[in-house]
Amino acid sequence: MPVVTNGRLIYAAHPSTFIEPGVHLQYVEEPIDTDTVPLNGGILIKTLTLSSDLYIRRRMRDASVKMFFPPLTIGKPVDNFGVGVVLRSEDPELTPGDHVYGYLSFENYSVAPPLSAKAFQAPKKFDKHPDLPASTYLGSLGMPGQTAYSAWKAFIAEKAKSSKTLFVSSGAGPVGTFVIAYARLTAPHLKIIASAGSPEKLELMKESGADVVFNYKTTDTAEVLAEHGPIDIYWDHVAGATLDAAIQNMNYFGYILRVGTNSGYNENQAGIKNTAMFIHKSLLMRGIQVGFGDDMIKAQEGFQEEATKLVLEGKIKNNETRYHGIKEAGNALADIHRIQTLGKTVIIVE
Amino acid sequence: MPVVTNGRLIYAAHPSTFIEPGVHLQYVEEPIDTDTVPLNGGILIKTLTLSSDLYIRRRMRDASVKMFFPPLTIGKPVDNFGVGVVLRSEDPELTPGDHVYGYLSFENYSVAPPLSAKAFQAPKKFDKHPDLPASTYLGSLGMPGQTAYSAWKAFIAEKAKSSKTLFVSSGAGPVGTFVIAYARLTAPHLKIIASAGSPEKLELMKESGADVVFNYKTTDTAEVLAEHGPIDIYWDHVAGATLDAAIQNMNYFGYILRVGTNSGYNENQAGIKNTAMFIHKSLLMRGIQVGFGDDMIKAQEGFQEEATKLVLEGKIKNNETRYHGIKEAGNALADIHRIQTLGKTVIIVE
């Protein structure tokens, strides 16, 4: 198969609010000769699966705005965490047939620079377990699982020992379900309260191990927290009004871990008013990003081994919403901001 | 002098906004027989000096609202940190002539329960240095100094080693001047930026050791911080819009210590909008109160010895605004919310 069709998702324009496929993201097809395309010392990858994540909205920005994650480049394909197979290699560290995980281009076939170029999140070889689908490495065994695992270990595990209550907002996403399940396993004494916006999500959070679940669209967050609190640990995926309600209901010396800002990706977000409570209750609030900072990097140790075992044993589930093909990737990236898909949203490319 | 006049400041009503002497606080005079007033196992104290602090506004609340510091009781005298001399004692741990420091009643003469009753901040014996006025023990050697010292040691000293910039808001108060001076002494590599609201305060912050001072009423906080930042450590006495401007200008892994809420004691306070920045920059924000929590209590060790030495050497100044007599105590408590007095506000009673 030397000349084949290469589907590509091109980043076309910065969105000002919600992502619109066709406007901000354009699907194109081009021929590629997989036998002869120049590798320049790198590798040719066949994409198996790609991840759709909320944070990519933050990468859809002008390059002058500095953030940890690099901006997408207009006119070039979107890239994000994915799993692929090496077809050809000029990199001595990789050979055809190797599975790689890292930032992959949203294309059926893409050329990546050699590892020695040290590109951001460059695809690296990993041992895919034969019993697990590749997309598991984008969910419980990928960035979301790693976020939950390393943030828990670095900042929450010790505090959890002397805590009674954990509140997880947006608890039906891939980080939320992982952290609920992991908390259930490693700190079984905790009362776990979790919120989300649909009956299916409440069910998923229950299955993951939450004791109290509620729909924030139909139930008052502050009332639930007042009834089941005070809250010792708040694992915050949303910020906004939910964060304010949580601050009001935190226990003395409570710990707020800011993991996501789901309520504020596309629209102006409600701020927080209860700043005086930080003093009255000696609260602590910390923001984290996966792989950012010595604490988070150190806490990643042991993740693949421990999480793979838990997934294989069924103790941590990998719940997925699947889109198919690069052609659908634009919808996968856009929909998660509106429809709020269940669990991890992935694009199955192969 | 068996029967003398006892001036008393009675807490009369909860304020809804600013404190009004005569309405919320009433000055009365009553005779007291210092020879015969029953002690019930406690002590008779002659008050030397009393402290006026912003946080007392938080104690002027309904008793049903729970906070670390207890509410004032309507119909009873105000109490707060003060220094007195024991006149009579039925407590075996205290003898006439002893200096005591702790919560004193806003009266010329007051009876305190024995130490064994373990009242909140019960007056305890201390060795007043003969060269220092009693009111020093309400400022640099009292609660404000202890707040700055223990919070710095518990949470900031380690971070300061690898930091370049420190921003202190409301830096001309007793905690602000202490922390600026202490940072200058113990972390001389730091660029110290400090804000306040009058030329006299800017001068005082300069004298205390700040490198960059600005008037937040006439200068845009965000612009100053952008020019001299990014900020590694923000020592926050005000919250509100200043906190939001600081969050915008924090460095990656920046540390925000919430020490005061000066902008919000009497009026609705501006909230903070930049909650997403906590994630982008991996920020940490912690609220503290003096003597509250293991970390803060442990960090108090060595305070009296080290701070007394620094004050005697003139390395930490004790800047004061003085009011005279219990009759003026109501104004002292009210004025600090409006006039914003310079340094530590004290009532000299003797």
TrEMBL record, chains A, B:
Domain Oxidoreductase N-terminal: 38-113
MF GO annotations: oxidoreductase activity, acting on the CH-CH group of donors, NAD or NADP as acceptor
SUPFAM superfamilies: GroES-like, NAD(P)-binding Rossmann-fold domains
Keywords, ordered alphabetically: Oxidoreductase
Domain Alcohol dehydrogenase-like C-terminal, first and last residues per copy: 174-296
Protein name: Enoyl reductase (ER) domain-containing protein
Annotated source species: Steccherinum ochraceum
